[in-house]
Amino acid sequence: MAAFQEREVFLNVYNLGQHNRWLSGLGLGAYHSAVEISGREYTFSNDGVLVTTGRTGEEAALREKISLGTFQGSMNQINEVVVRLREDFAPGSYDVIRQNCNHFSDAFSMALLGKGIPGWINRMAGLLHWVPGSGQQAQEASEEEAADVKVSAKRRELTDEQRAILAKIGKKKGGS
Fold first, then answer.
1. Do 14 and 31 touch, CB atoms closer than 8 A?
2. Where does the PPPDE domain lie (predicted)?
3. Of 156, 167, 161, 158, whose CA–CA distance to 39 is shortest?
């Protein structure tokens, strides 16, 4: 039987460069974010949804850790949400303006808690969305950031066997 318990949900926000010192005064900045639950960090990159036991932004400075709320449920329920989100946040679908780590953190928070992440975290991407030609320049910058912000070698992703088990659980719940 799955262990239901209260699990604190945090948003870890990392600075992606020194420029945030002066951009933050304007309410802007470039940030990497990840959702942390029970010592695991969940984030999104061009490799897809990543689950690690360390900090995904270990190459970047942790700006702050924000409590988003408390999730009441099991790790199996959390894993089911991750499996669903992997459909929308598939490997190769990363776009620094339209589908980045902050978009994933927001969707994950909405799915677990019914509320998103603070708007200032992804404000820069929202503004750049409306600037003609910014997509290509931003994508090139995101590729450089991806090289700078390396994911921990301790990364743990679901195995095919674990995915199959989760799929069976989902079918049982849907058929009950």
1. yes
2. 7-130
3. 156
CATH fold of 5-134: endopeptidase fold (from Nostoc punctiforme) (3.90.1720)
d(CA 27, CA 14): 15
Burial code (b: 16+ CB inside 10 Å, e: under 16) for 54-92 equals ebbbebbeebeeeebeebebeeebbbbbbbebbeebeee
Domain parsing of the chain, residue ranges: 5-134
How far apart are the C-alpha atoms of 107 and 42, rounded to whole Å? 12
Placement of tokens 């998103």 in the chain: 116
Specify the pTM.
Answer: 0.70
Name the 3-class secondary structure at 38: coil
